[in-house]
User: Fold these one by one.
Assistant:
Number 1:
Amino acid sequence: MKIVLNWLKKYVAVPESVSDEELIRLIGARLVEVEGVIDETHKYDNIYIVRVEKAEKIPETHLTLCQINSGGDDLMQVVCGAPNVREGMLAVWIAPGAIVPASVHEDAPFVIGKRKMQGYESNGMLAGADELDFGDDHSGIVEIDPEAAQPGDLLAEVFDLKDLVLEIENKSLTHRPDCFGMIGFAREVAGILGERMVDDEMMGPVAHSLSGAASPRPVVTSEARSSSPCQAPEAIRKNNEFHPSIIISDSGICSRYSVVVLEKHGEMEKKYLTWMDTVLSKSGMKPISPVVDATNYLMLLTGQPLHAFDYDKFIEVGKTERPEIVVRLARKGEKLVLLDDKEIELNENDIVICSGDVPVALAGAMGGKTTGIDENTRNIILESATFSLFNLRKTQMAHGIFTEAITRFTKGQPPYQTMMVAKDCAEMLSGGFKVIGGADEYPNPEQPIVVKVTTDEINQLLGTDYDDTKIGQTLENVGFQVKEKGGQLEVHVPEWRTDIHIKEDIIEEVGRLLGYDNIEPTLPLHGTAEKNRLLELKKQIRRTLARYGANEVLTYSFVSGRLLEKAGQDVKKSYKIINSISPDLQYVRQSIVPSLLDKAYVNQKMPVDKFAMFEINEVYSKTWGMNDENVPVAKVSLGFVLAERKNNETAFYKAKKYAAKLLQELNIPVEFVPKQSKLEAGEPFEPVRTADIMVGGQCIGVVGEFKNSVRNEFKLAPYLAGFEIVDIDTLLTNMSDVRKIKFGSYKTEDLTVTTEKSYAETLKEVQAKYPEAEIMPLSIYQALGQKTKNLSFRIKTW
Amino acid sequence: MVEIEQLKQELKRINAEAARIRELAVEKRAEFGRQINAKRQEVLKNIALAEKALLDVEVEPIDVTAWSGINEKMPEFYPTEMGSSHPLMAEMERVCDIYQRMGFDVVEARQLDDEFHMFDALNFPKEHPARDGYDTFRTEEGLIPPAHTSTMQHRVLKQYQKQLDETGRLAVVVPGRVYRNEDVDATHEHTFYQCEGVYVSKDCNMGQMLGILREFFEKYYEQKLNIRTQPGYFPFTEPSLEFLIEKPKSLGGKKGDYLEMLGCGMIHPNVLKMAGIDPNEYHGFAWGGGIDRLVMLRFGLSDVRYFESGNLNFLREF
């Protein structure tokens, strides 16, 4: 959303001492995130109001030779191609050397010069609305109301164009529908400055800005609005054949639906450039036609979107004598052609406005083609309503409609002002239309909200020392009514504040408006907390493996179905993400190692000749079921993979050495036995070259080489092995702080056993002989063609 | 082997049968073609499976109880200088250490959670548009990989109630991995880390929250910092704020160069109530912010994508 600063200042008396920069900082600190500021201070430099004193057609061209009065003594000569240039008119002159405003933000702004056209010297140019960046109109040059300006006046001064436009982050105002209109925004800004918004009584709404006067006055302000009765205009209340009937099928989808019926009594000629044109343009909209401009302007002003139906088309579509408006949910299969010519298929969540039973508009989002207004429109049904933000939010997503109107509706516009805004609009259009009917359906009027809070509660939660008067004043500045009695505040919430329900909401208002930056940071003093054992374990694993040359990596928790298949895991055991970003991220992984194999390929290709990678992260499998909270059982798993491009030895033993070292440093006794386990994490491992890691009689993971098929799928070199410890929580229960330290003198002897038995079996026999000794492996030798091996040990005795 | 031969024979038979398609009436050909093709695909799939299985059949077993291969050297570890901790994890340790020394317990967040903890327990109205702002992923079962560590607030509030009763205070931080369905670029990752803080006592206030946060950031960046706030909106805190720090001078910051570090606020009474804490007796504040950004700032990194790249040339720098 864009906020035009000069427009804002019409409602807020900004003290001299507050610079624009400071004002923007305060808005950022106390109201909303300001994403950017568009500086238009110099956009209209050297652009003047001039009078065309003489205009002569240049024969055989479409051009006119003009002598213009720009306030100086001499007339200037300008060649103009526009059909509407004529003697005596006030026009806008872009002087030589000035930049065409519409091109200011382009890479190469267009600088107007002095040049010859058809042999005639032309100084600068007379500008059209498009060149001035006030919409797309290129049919002629802009004309200025002679009541509003004199030749020689700067355009920027007449129309207040030396401006800054704030770009507001809409998300930070999700809960503040009122701030999506200038009045609501200004009320807040005034409150931040410690004042009330400029109260200018009801100024016959904006008629001023339509007629073209250049220094318009603000319209309807908060006080006037809240006190004016929510009733239809006089004409509406009379019994009249133009009264539409309104049926809201469910007040849950539409809390209030108001309409005013207008009849055309004359052309609303748009002769002069208006201040409203400039405001619409600066706010990011375009002047289009009097009716559309009036609805857009009021939406920007009040936050309440309006929609105009062609009355005659409306009753024709519904085949009724007078308008029968029905607000209901769409039925499956219904279709609607929107104003932008797109046909959409409605779903049962969409709210539609119907003429009789025929949908003619997608409520809150966009009008329908069949009832749109055009240049032949005689009578208008002006809709001002509020719809369920929940439905509209789904509609927005389903049909991809992101209009200014739906942006406001999805914040939950309050129903209190629908009829007032419709009335304002009727009044703005009174030059060409008169009110001949109307209706207002408001089944369950909103009840006033009163919140009780004490000064102490406010100060206690904020850590401040504000007194009753300051708090009361601050709240009243933004429209709350406060009754105070001995520190007890009874706060009456204005009807536009849909977000205030409890005392904490009031405390937020006080803290925010008076500035959180004014709260003194203090530090509650504490001792040190207990350490988290699992985190300490992770830290220890990380330190140990890194110390022995391994690299910790992080990989995504989501993997592709293909990756699971490559690793030999069952896709059905993985939780599936239904709205994944890509097929690569569709399943929640069951173990860490497959992700590491994937990254091993990337690194081996780089090439990194040798590496060991590990990751500690959470994994999930559907087979593990749910925990007490009815969410899936989670396991923190440690995966490890090592790979080398050129090595003919058996990778298994290096991986095992890492696993053994890690457990030794954690002081956990471990045994490696031939694989029998059936863990998900074990699937990629080759059973005859893999060991189960046994701790306290329980298998906590596997270490081994990978199946040839797996290695092939991941395109990795043969020297490849790894391990996975599935649930490192189990390590915690087996860790011991007691460490036997042996030191002093010892003797060593080496022993070689010739045997056909396995290492473990042989070791047992050696241990039986040397019960107190530390026995370490030295080597395994097997001569070619022999069945027996020579197992060598080093025996250390204290 | 025998099995593959048989399958290949069958494929031949099917191909021969397929040739008969020309003998059939035109209107029957489509259906016949479909059936034959289905059979062919089935057999081809089985051949592929059998071939894959064959790869894994004739593997030489090893003695997994031994410590080296036969006639091989004893394996050795890679040199220490090759090793590294992941920068995010190492910094997360620092973050937790700082909070722990300030008196906060550390509880880690889950990585697969449910709608209740993601939204309901945090006072998000059902179907509220604010739920959209989090771009959550969902599983077929409706589970949610958390989009913020605030999913843990409710758990922590319940888990530490006894401590709250006994000591009058609850102070916990929750580091965790979070997920958002958004396109990845230099400053956005769908997977990243956050740290949540939760503090409850009878007399806590916003000044204390700002004090704790300033203390944390000054400890983390090891220097005095200027802080600033701006209003925010979260359904689970009231009031809600964004917390900013002035970019530290040592990291190239200029005066007035403020960075949004986290969202924070006083815990909404409904959130306390849902966790069984009486909001009339206790107040709390909570905050949550990204760790990736913190670390990127500290090391002057410009691309968040390196963190999950598994690129060892990057990781070995740490």
Note: Residues 590 and 620 of chain A are 5 Å apart (CA to CA).
Number 2:
Amino acid sequence: MGRLNQLDGPDELRLRELSARALGILVRRHGGFDSCEDAVQEALVVAARDWPRDGWPANPLGWLITVASRRLVEIWRNEAARRGREERYALTSLGDPAPVPQADDTLTLLTLCCHPALTRPAQVALTLRAVGGLTTAEIARALLIPEATAGQRISRAKARIKAAGARFEEPREDERTERLASVLEVLYLIFNEGSTTSSGPALHRVELCAEAIRLTRQLYASLPHEGEVAGLLALMLLTDARRPARTDAERRLIPLAEQDRSRWNRAAIDEGVALLTPVLATAPPGPFQLQAAISAVHDEAASVAETDWPQILGLYDIHLLLAPGPMVTLNRIVAVAMVHGAEVALAELAEAARAPALDGHYRVHAVRAHLLDQVGDSKRAHEEYLGAARRTKSLPEQRYLQARADAARARSDASSGE
Amino acid sequence: MKYLILIHSNAHFQQRWEALSEAERENFGRGHFALSDDLAASGELVASEGLADPSLATWVRTRDGQTVSSDGPFVEVKEHLAGFYLVDVDSEKRAVEVAARIPDAVWGLVEVRPVLDMSGWDV
């Protein structure tokens, strides 16, 4: 039990999309997000078990709503019995699933799952379950945590939402921007979680990158004119497009400069660029649009040498003004080196590295090593690569940085032996 | 993000532990149970165990494909591991917060270590 992938790909996705719609409809009709979510989850598991064997019902959404509603009655009866109270729960239109409202609940559901009373990990887990339609077991496997941990995270999140008195409704106008920003961050976190775990023991693992893209697509469908929503979707597509070239058969990281660009996913790049072009002209700029624009410049270049580095630098300059951050500073310095030379970049790095947020950060060492390599100081490049390798929290990066350190040492030994 | 919180001990602290009253030792134990219950309830606990005395340890080495095991380290170790918490939390700050609730932290032998992940920097 607990797995939806007895169904094959398209059917599984269809079922999961239906589950989010069923949840929206149920919460609208009856209230009580937490019980409705439990009920839909149980209906989903039954569907995943029976439908591959018996065939899909004529009205799958109606079926899910009916079965989940019955389950909901049982949940409420049990609760009422437990409390020893004689409460009457009026359930309307039980055996009559036919009229399904066409309301788009994606944004409302996402906003509820990313409620500010929840921690980030709780928002991620709840989004994957309530909007993504994944089972607890699938979420646990995807996040590399025990099933009990995932289950507890989800039920605690639902209890918190209930305690906070959050309602299933679109956010008020004054908090809309903030809530949407939080939804986008959670979706991006799910996407990055996918690239964080995708080289792990991946057998039967739900693909989190694809899931994040799917959910962001749904959000984009309800908010097509929101610049940052389009920007995030474009960023995901433009980043994911390079995935086939990002690691070799031994799962070693291949840096952008050395990737086989013929392996990049052209369709994803075209789609990302097409999403981005109109919003860059019309919407107010934001960090996701800028990062997507930078990604697009990389993705459209035939090689590192043919990349439009002045444009990338210009985009980083705007990014730094609009939404400064230590990683923006560092990535900008890499672009500075390509436009103005490694010496200039090294001087800027020395200045930037004084900021407390970058003090001792492994990427400062990695960027410095890269720049020292460019100016031919292999000896110091070797030391800096090693420093970076020791400080990273990522296993593939550690391997990559150690290999770079080896190469720099070999060059250093060769030049001192001359 | 996963963090392993290691609880170290050594001969000196072993003696101090043994010198505690039964009530004090029970208080310690209750602190650990309360912490693991809270971490389980919040969905942050991956695993947590206390370890048996290092005198029960077996040291394993392989040589030419043969397994050689022995009862103790060849050199007397100064410190040993007494227990651990593996947590999956929002931030390093939160991991440190958890570590500070470990009763052994009063003795200054609790260490928070990030677990390596499989992420990759795409530049």
Note: The CA atoms of residues 114 and 182 of chain A lie 6 Å apart.
